[in-house]
């Protein structure tokens, strides 16, 4: 089948790692029974250091795609590559989960009985990559870079949800991943906290330049953060439109009031609304 043409993208200063190629991927749940076609011949090329935002109607198959990249479940055909290495594909339906691709979950997953610093340092120590001393030192540096100094000795329950989200990102980055996989990390936040989170995420990103695969239902969030926005079709999921967000980084919230931002919003809303109507007609509600 023909590949969707994708606009070129070259992030400045990228270390050149973290290219994801999703090639003609098909995912069918319960192939012998209900046979739910979740992803249908989906192809997307994500450049190293790109912030790639994925939007689409509820239940269209976005998380399925993320799970396939993370190695949480198998695909039925097609292939996914990371920096040219096949993660899953012919003869290997499921990728191995690995520290090169870290998932930041919607509801967070910090240990409530460990301090924030211990949470951040925990991963590399458990993997035997660092001693506690080394991990604490790196964690303190990364937390300072992310504006989290002063929270180190608090427990997750003692800090705001916004701080917890930032801690989760820093914890993920402790493993020096090539790719961060985020599934609506700010869904539960109020809009003010969300805007602070967006700028904080970009600040962390500008210092780390990992590839970011970010699922959201929030179109403003998608355009504000993303180099590109991939608008998925209603289930089964494949790109309907790929929008190149030609607003230069570094960005701050001032860009929201620019005419170009509004134009990009209009373009996105039109495409998403069309798919939402199809999903609604098919009996699935918009999220
Ligand atoms: N284990 C499973 N078995 C059968 N069907 C599944 C399974 N997991 C997901 N599905 C179905 O696959 C489709 C895609 O689900 P997925 O979670 O990937 O969508 P999504 O786009 O991430 O949705 P949302 O935006 O609501 O999080 C949905 O119709 C869902 O019901």
Automatic annotation (TrEMBL):
It comes from the Bacteria. GO terms for molecular function: ATP binding; ATP hydrolysis activity. Keywords: ATP-binding, Nucleotide-binding, Transport. Residues 20-259 form the ABC transporter domain. CDD domains: ABC_NrtD_SsuB_transporters. The keyword Transport applies. PROSITE patterns: ABC_TRANSPORTER_2. Belongs to the ABC transporter superfamily. This is ABC transporter ATP-binding protein. It comes from Pelomicrobium methylotrophicum. The lineage of its organism: Bacteria, Pseudomonadati, Pseudomonadota, Hydrogenophilia, Hydrogenophilia incertae sedis.
